[in-house]
Structures are given as C-alpha cells and as structure tokens.
C-alpha cells in the first residue's frame, strides 16, 4: 500500500513550546537531575536497583526459566514422562535428547532411558511444557544455574531434571493442583473403565461359560 | 630530638590553621637544629611543601574518582560503587591495583617514546599549576609575584601533551581526538585569560595571594558578587569546563563518537595517568576560579574567622567540583563546530566586554555610581545576545500536527 | 573524489590529489555507539563525512532458514529475538501472519490483550530510545537510567503475564498463551496513570535543552519522496510529515475501535524523530486507557486450535503490523506440512537503515552517531 499524502491536521498541536529565556532548558535539565539525586536518598520508587547477591528482586509466580520433569512418589518409576518425543520435536533450538527405555525383548517400557536438556542451548521458551500431553514437563523458576564446568555442568540429565510433584506444587500451586485434580479424575475414570472392563469380561466369560454349559448340556 | 626551644618560640605551629605547613616547618626546624646550611634548609622545605600539595591532591584525586562515581550514580538513581570497603571507600585502591596489574599495550605503529612521554607530561603541568594557589592564609606552597601568569603558562602545556598522546598513538580515533582537543583548548584559553584579566585590572596584581587578600571582609567583597565579576565568573566557569575537558565539552574523548579520543590506545597505568592529569587539571582550574572570583580562602562572613582558612578553600573547591559533576550528569555533548562557534562568536566578545566594565569599576570605586555605570554596560549586550538566541530558539520551535484519519 | 566501492566490506577507493587528505575510519563493529555489532566504513575529510558504507551481518543468526526447518509454533520464540527490545510486537506480527495463512479467528479478549501488550511494547521501545539517543549524544547515562527505571515497571508486568521479562513467547495462533493473571489489568491501569508524569519529567529534561536542540535540529533530514521511495516506515517517516501508520492505513486487530491520533512531524530531522516518539507514547497511553476500560471477558485463545502438529493449508500470506520501529511484516508460504516452505521477515530496522548514507553525507562524525541513533535500530532485527 502506498503512503498517503499528508492530510491536513484536524487537531491543534499539543502544547506549543514557549521560550522565556535562553538557557532555561539547561536549568530545567539540572533541576530534573538534581531532583532525582536528592530523591534517590529517600524515595523508594527512585532507587530501583537491588544489591543482587544479598537481596533479590521478587520473582513473579509465573516466572519461567528452565524445564524440569515431574515424578509422582518415586523418582524412577513415578516419572510421568513416557518418552513420546513430542517435546523433542517441538523444541525450537532442539536442545532435548530422549532415548526410550526398552526391555531385553525390545519392548518399549514407556519411560525415558536418557533425557538430556542442554542448558547452553535451551532458550527457556516453555514450548516443551506447553506441548506435553502427559503433564510431565514444566518450567522451573530456578535461575542461578551458572557453573564453571562448561560441558558436563550445563548438560542436565534425568537425575538433575527430575523433581517431585510436591516441588511442582510448591512452585506453581495453581497449575499443579489443577493438573493433579485432572490426573486424579483421569485415573478414576480409567480405574472405573478398567473395572467396568473387568466386570464386562467377567460377565462375558460367565455368559460364555453358561452358553458352553448349555451347549454341553444339550450334547 | 625535636628543637623544643624553636617549637615553643613558634606557638602557632600546632594550630589548625598552620596544620598544612607543619611538615615543612618541622623539617626546616629540624635541619636548622642540626646546623644544616641555609640553602639546604630552604630546598628541603620547598620539597616538603611540594610533597604536601602533591600528597593532598593525589588523595583528592583518589577521593574524587570515587565521589564522582557516587554522585553520578545518585543522579542516575543508582547506588554506585559500594563493594570495596565501607561505602566503597577502598574503590580507588582497587582501581589502582587493577590499573597497575593490567597489561601495558603500545600499538605497533605508535611513536614509542612519545607514547610514553604523553601521560607523564599531562600530570606534570597540573601539579606545577597547583603549586602557586594560595590554599590558606598561611599556606601558599610557592608564592610567586607572577603567579597567574605562571599558572596559564604551565596550564597550556596540557594541550601539548594531549596532542602528543593523540599523534604518537599512530591511530585514527586518537588523532581525531587530538585535533579536537587542540582546537578546543586554544579557543577556550583566550576567553579564560581575558576574564582573568578583569580581576588583574581591579586588583592591580598578578600575585594570587594578593588577589585573595583584596577580597576580604565577607562574601559581598568577593569578585563574583560584583557586576563585572559575576559575568566574568560565569564565563570563566564555562571556559574552565572546556579547559578541563568535562561534559558538555568533553569532545576530545567523546566516547560515543571517537571511542576515547586521545586515550584510546592507552592501557594500564598510562591510562590511569591520563585520568590523574585530568582530575588534577580539574582541581587546578577550579582552584584558580575560586581564587579569582570566590574569594579564595576567605570566609564568607567576617565572623567565621575562627575556622581555618584552608577549610573554607576546600569547601569551595568541593562545591565547584560538585557543579562540574552535576553538569556532567545532565547534559549531552555539543558538536565540534558548535563548540568553536560558541567560543569565538560568544565567549570571546563577552569576555572582552568584562574588561571595560572592570576598568570602570576600578576607577569609580565600589558605590552606587559604579553599579549604575557597569550594570548597563554589561546587561545591554547580554540582552541583545539573549534576544538573538530567543529568536533562533523560536525558529527552532516545531509545530506538530495530528492526523485523525 | 570518491568512487563507488568495489564491495561493501572494503574501504571506498579514493582517487584524485586530495585522496591522501582523507581519513578512513571503521566505526564499529566494536564501537560504543553503534547499537550492537554494526560497522560503518566512514571516509572523513577533517570531521566531515565524505562517504559512509554500512557493513552488517555480524549478528546474523539464520533466523529465516531456521524457521523453515522447525514447526510453526517453534518459530514463535525466535521472533522474540528479532527486535529484542519489543518482543511482543514481533509475536503479534508472526501470529497474525499464521492466522491469515490458516484462516484462524481470534477471540475478542485476545485481541484486546494483544493491543494492550503491543502498546506497552511501544512505550518500552520509545522510552528506551530516549535513553539511547541521549547516550549517543554523549550524556552520561542519566536519561538512560531514568528510561530503564520506567521500562523495568513494564517488564515486571510482562514477567507476571508471560513468565519472562523480555523473551515473552506469548502470542499463539488464535490468541495468547495464557490469560491475564488476577489483578494484572489493575496493575497495568496504575502504570498507565503513572506514565504521564514520567513523560512530563522526561520532556522537561530533554525537549527544551538547548544543547539537544543544537545537536538534533536540521540533522539528518531527507525529502519525503526519498523516504517513501526508500521504503522507510514508522516514526522516521511520520517525523517527515507523511501520514502513514498501519494502525490507521491498513487497520489490523481491533485498532479501529479506539480513538487515537497520529502525530506528524515538521521537518523530519533527528529532533522531530525524538518528538514524534514522545507524542506517540502519549497516544499509546490513550489507547491503553481505552483498551483496559473495555477489556471483555471470554476466551484468551481460540479453543479450536490444536497446539501439536499444527498444519496450515497450502497457501501464502503476508501480515504486517505497525511495530514501534515501523512496518513489521511476516511473509509465509505453506506447503501444507508442519514447517513453512518460505518464511520471510520484513524488518523495519533493516529497511530504515538503507538511507543512512544519504542522511549522513556532508555532516559531522558526531552527527552520524545521532542519525544512527535516531533511526532506532536493533541489530538483532537488522541482521536476523
């Protein structure tokens, strides 16, 4: 689209500048800096810096930095991750590396054998947490992750990534409780479904048995 | 084995007023007591007196480098250095250690000898100039009859060393900085000297202690509070900002344009020497301004004579230097052509105007008649300049329109 | 005297007798005021600029090619890193391009949220600009610190909402990632109320300052036609008096619902560019006030959009918004797979930079720095 020609102004200009004396602007500038200097001694909103290692700026509960994996109860068996690799695929800088654990027969155990995230590559975007369908990966609020070991220290494996569901609950109570409630409901539904299935199977078997008996009786 | 008799014969030696001269007097008395020849006593005395000044101002340099950062930090709503020692008091020490342990880099294309010479040359004239300032009634390190002349003669050496630094670095940014420095300092030296001449005309002497003594009797006797002295003092202040290469006239080092100007190719302790030279120069020019216009070591009110005079002097110095820092925290830098135009078209004519005014003041004496004569003489041209500026500023006013559609 | 350079990376070839009088200076890439890693090969006659060749690419990160290799969603955090001063505008531009491509509707509440965030981003950008330009002029960081003090307050809001201060990664196709937290709109209202006094203080600090007037007026102006032909957009174009703001010229989102005005400049020099940004901030505050008052309830994202395995239909789309720096557009070509076939950014910083030499010729070295500052570039967007 082309630029339009300059349309005439329909509103008067704001605040026409008035010049009282030359150098007034310079004194105004001095007044502003002087005011800032004096007020920095007693006004909180002027002095916004914090002395970092001793004091810290408050962190928003929503703050995200680096992902972690959630487990229920047991760090190994309770890991929610099923190694489905969705996060691996969606990760923008491709910093997630997952190997599925299999038993001797090559059958999937639906849990990760290796789950590595490279901190030096991760850009803390949170997409992995967003796409995960198993409520397994969430963003941590921890931000002091620097280390002097540039290779091993920045590669986070399962041992450093796994954190308990209680940790998640403490970090983001709202999100975690919603997830827990959903998971609980899901489990109950599943259990109910399983129970229904078992009951159905039983009923089926009994019906079959009865039919067979009937058949046998006939013969 | 102190010469007790001599000390008792000089009861004022241990008063606060005489404190800065104490080392010098002690050395002189001690040597005299041992029967040293006259010339040796006076040379030793001079050396100790010079050492006192150098010591005081090197301490001042260290303190100012911290205070400047603290003040600028407060202006910018920060805290400033506070890690080294109590309230960062050891920061200058930390900086010094850092500077000393840094690698000294000399560019391949530099003139090696001159490259080394420049930072030394920039410190020496500043210290020399500090030697002739009267800091207190009893404390003038070197009392020269032509003190003012000596000050300006030595002070102009700074330009030379800045140019040496820029040229000897064999690099482009330092060269640009050096060219800027030379043109700026020469241009501003003229109005600086002319404004000082007014004081010389009224005082009738080039000796700085005499100039101070003539301003005694309360602040209304200071040169700054006479009509010609007021204008001359303001002009002197502006020129001294330019002479000291401070913001908004810090073009030679203009860090947003030419990196660090003449200091670009320096590192380590040579770089620190440039800073030292700059700060000592700042002290020197402020001290001269105080001597000429703010009554030197004179107390502001006659009843305040019980405070040692050098405390008044350093109090005034602190105030003037705070003005420098405040200005540095506020203004952007001017451009080189504007700087030069300002010097030649505004500063020098205005400075020249103060000369006849000072003459009239001198001959009519302090009274109603002199006020009636001098004030219009100065005010009319200032008003004319003001009107011209006002017109130009009005032309600079912009109207902004708003499109709704 | 100076002929065209053989390549941009080499210094210009000089001919004639006074060629040896000229000084060739490489300003950058390591230079205090090139706003990052930008280089200008400048030829100086004394301190007057005879020739200026920009050299860039030091921050090239393959943004477009990377985006063609990852999914549509995965490009979103990369757009944060284009113009890292204002990530949320970039998010919006990219999201609206994908929405156009896939024909996604955006719920009402999400539209309002987007407007609020984009205008807050404009405030951030212009406020930071005031600090940067004063730094370029040689002021010792006071304006920068004041600007950053207020910017931090907006970044706090962003942190509450998006979880990150700068790299927001917040917009999603068909809305936003999460809803406003409780109390956010009220906090934002307070900020909008407090911003006016800050702008007053800043204006008092800068606008009347005679040194600033002397430095900025009549520096770097170009005729309107040149600017239009050069594709310049944003405050730089409007400072020259051309009424072209995409919010009005080609309305997107829900900008038609708000009443605001487009400030137009007088001469188009650096001073006008500063002033236009001041006036734009005041208009942004008006938009924010209206948007916060009208903020409806509802979905923050279109619930029909699936987040995994997102595949837009085959097609092509270009969407643009009025970013704080100018027209920010994204051009996408889809071949129906999860990755875009072609992904192209129209970065305002980069295109506004193209006329740098025309603005600088014949001026001082010190002016070059101000002009570069007044263009308001971010090297992340220039080099991509």
Question: How does this model look, in words?
Answer:
The complex is a heterotrimer of chains A (219), B (405) and C (384). Chain A is α+β, with helices and mostly antiparallel strands and 219 residues long. Chain A has 6 helices and 6 strands, in the order H-E-H-E-E-H-E-E-H-E-H-H. In chain A, strand 2 (96-102) and strand 3 form a beta hairpin. In chain A, helix 5 (165-171) runs antiparallel to helix 6 (173-218). Mean pLDDT of chain A is 79; it is low at 1-19. With 405 residues, chain B is mainly α. Chain B has 2 domains: 4-88; 104-385, no CATH class. Chain B is built from 15 helices and 1 strand. Chain C folds into 2 domains: 12-55, no CATH class; 63-382, Cytochrome-c3 Hydrogenase, chain B (Orthogonal Bundle), CATH 1.10.645. In chain C, the strands form 3 sheets. Chain C has a 3-stranded antiparallel beta sheet with strand order 1-2-3. In chain C, a hairpin with a 2-residue loop joins strand 4 and strand 5 (175-176). The relative contact order of chain C is 0.18. Chain C has helices at residues 63-69, 75-80, 87-102, 108-137, 142-162, 184-206, 210-216, 224-229, 235-239, 246-249, 270-294, 348-352, 356-360, 365-375, 379-383; strands at 23-27, 39-45, 48-55, 171-172, 175-176, 262-264, 315-323, 326-334, 340-346. Chains in contact: A-B, A-C, B-C. At the A-C interface, helix 1, helix 2 and helix 3 of A face helix 2, helix 5, helix 6 and helix 7 of C. Strand 1 (401-403) of chain B pairs antiparallel with strand 6 of chain C.
């Amino acid at each position: 689209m082309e630029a339009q020609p300059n349309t005439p102004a329909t509103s008067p200009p704001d605040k026409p500048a008035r010049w009282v004396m030359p150098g007034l602007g310079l004194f105004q500038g001095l007044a502003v800096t002087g005011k800032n200097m004096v007020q920095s001694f007693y006004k909180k909103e002027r002095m916004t810096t914090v002395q970092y290692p001793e004091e810290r700026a408050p962190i928003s509960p929503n703050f995200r930095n680096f992902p972690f994996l959630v487990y229920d109860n047991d760090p190994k068996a309770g890991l929610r991750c099923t190694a489905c690799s969705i996060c691996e695929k969606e990760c923008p800088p491709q910093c997630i590396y997952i190997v599925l654990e299999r038993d001797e027969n090559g059958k999937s155990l639906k849990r990760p054998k290796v789950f590595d995230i490279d901190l030096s590559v991760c850009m803390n975007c949170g997409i992995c947490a967003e796409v995960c369908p198993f409520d397994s990966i969430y963003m941590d609020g921890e931000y002091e992750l620097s280390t002097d070991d540039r290779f091993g220290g920045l590669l986070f494996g399962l041992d450093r990534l796994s954190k308990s569901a209680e940790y998640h609950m403490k970090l983001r109570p709202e999100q975690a409780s919603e997830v827990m409630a959903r998971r609980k409901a899901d489990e109950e539904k599943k259990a109910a479904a399983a129970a229904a299935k078992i009951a159905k199977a039983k009923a089926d078997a009994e019906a079959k048995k009865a039919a067979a008996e009937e058949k046998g009786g006939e013969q | 084995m102190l010469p007790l008799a001599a000390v008792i014969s000089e009861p004022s030696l241990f008063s606060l007023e005489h404190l800065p001269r104490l080392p010098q007097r002690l050395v002189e008395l001690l040597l005299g007591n041992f029967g040293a020849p006259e010339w040796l006593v006076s040379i030793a005395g001079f050396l100790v007196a010079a050492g006192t000044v150098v010591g005081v101002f090197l301490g001042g340099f260290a303190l100012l480098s911290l205070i400047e950062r603290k003040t600028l930090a407060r202006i910018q709503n920060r805290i400033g250095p506070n890690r080294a020692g109590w309230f960062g008091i050891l920061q200058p020490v930390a900086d010094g250690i850092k500077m000393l342990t840094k690698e000294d880099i000399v560019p391949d294309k530099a003139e090696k000898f001159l490259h080394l010479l420049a930072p030394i040359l920039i410190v020496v004239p500043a210290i020399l100039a500090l030697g002739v300032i009267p800091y207190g009634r009893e404390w003038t390190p070197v009392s020269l009859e032509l003190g003012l002349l000596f000050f300006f003669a030595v002070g102009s050496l700074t330009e030379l060393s800045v140019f040496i630094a820029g040229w000897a670095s064999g690099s482009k940014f330092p060269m640009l900085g050096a060219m800027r420095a030379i043109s700026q300092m020469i241009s501003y030296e003229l109005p600086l000297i002319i404004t000082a001449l007014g004081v010389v005309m009224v005082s009738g002497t080039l000796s700085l202690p005499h100039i101070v003594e003539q301003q005694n009797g309360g602040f209304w006797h200071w040169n700054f509070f006479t009509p010609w002295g007021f204008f001359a003092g303001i002009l002197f202040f502006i020129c001294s900002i330019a002479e000291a290469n401070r913001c908004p006239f810090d073009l030679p080092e203009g860090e947003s344009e030419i990196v660090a100007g003449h200091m670009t190719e320096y590192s380590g302790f040579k770089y620190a020497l440039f800073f030292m030279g700059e700060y000592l120069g700042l002290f020197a020019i402020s001290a001269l301004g105080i001597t000429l216009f703010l009554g030197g070591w004179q107390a502001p009110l006659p009843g305040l004579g019980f405070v040692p005079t050098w405390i008044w002097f350093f109090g005034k110095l602190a105030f003037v230097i705070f003005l420098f820092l405040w200005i540095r925290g506020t203004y952007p830098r001017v451009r080189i052509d504007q700087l030069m135009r300002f010097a030649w078209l505004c500063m020098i004519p205005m400075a020249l105007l103060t000369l006849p005014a000072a003459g009239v003041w001198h001959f009519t004496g302090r009274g109603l008649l002199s006020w009636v004569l001098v004030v219009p003489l100065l005010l009319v041209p200032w008003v004319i300049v003001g009107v011209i500026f006002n017109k130009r500023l009005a032309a600079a006013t912009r109207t902004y329109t708003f499109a709704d559609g | 005297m100076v002929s065209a350079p053989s390549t941009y990376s080499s210094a210009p070839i000089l001919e004639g007798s006074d060629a040896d009088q000229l000084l060739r200076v490489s300003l950058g890439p390591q230079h205090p005021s090139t706003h990052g890693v930008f280089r200008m090969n400048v030829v100086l006659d004394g301190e007057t600029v005879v020739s200026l060749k920009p050299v860039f690419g030091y921050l090239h990160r393959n943004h477009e090619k990377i985006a063609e290799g990852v999914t549509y969603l995965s490009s979103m955090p990369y757009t944060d890193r284009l113009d890292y001063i204002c990530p949320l505008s970039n998010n919006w531009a990219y999201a609206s391009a994908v929405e156009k491509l896939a024909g996604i509707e955006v719920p009402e509440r999400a539209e309002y949220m987007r407007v609020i965030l984009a205008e807050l981003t404009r405030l951030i950008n212009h406020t930071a600009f005031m600090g940067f330009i004063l730094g370029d002029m040689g002021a010792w960081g006071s304006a920068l610190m004041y600007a950053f003090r207020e910017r931090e307050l907006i970044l706090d809001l962003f942190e509450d909402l998006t979880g990150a201060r700068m790299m927001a990664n917040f917009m999603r196709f068909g809305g936003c990632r999460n809803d406003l937290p409780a109390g956010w709109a009220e906090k934002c209202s307070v900020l909008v109320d407090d911003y006016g006094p800050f702008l007053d203080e800043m204006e008092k600090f800068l606008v009347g300052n005679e040194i600033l007037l002397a430095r900025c007026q009549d520096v770097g102006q170009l005729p309107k036609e040149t600017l239009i032909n050069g594709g310049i957009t944003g405050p730089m174009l409007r400072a020259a008096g051309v009424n072209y703001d995409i919010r009005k010229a080609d309305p997107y989102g829900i900008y038609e619902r708000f009443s605001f005005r487009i400030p137009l400049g007088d001469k188009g020099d650096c001073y006008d560019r500063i002033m236009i940004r001041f006036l734009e901030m005041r208009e942004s505050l008006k938009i924010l006030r209206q948007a916060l008052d009208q903020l409806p309830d509802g979905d923050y994202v279109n619930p029909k959009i699936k987040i995994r395995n997102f595949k837009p239909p085959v097609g092509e789309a270009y969407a643009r918004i009025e970013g704080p720096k100018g027209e920010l557009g994204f051009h996408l070509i889809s071949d129906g797979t999860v990755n875009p076939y072609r992904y192209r950014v129209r970065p305002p910083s980069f295109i506004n930079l193209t006329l740098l030499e025309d603005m600088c010729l014949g001026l001082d070295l010190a002016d070059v720095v101000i002009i570069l500052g007044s263009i308001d570039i971010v090297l992340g967007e220039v080099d991509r």
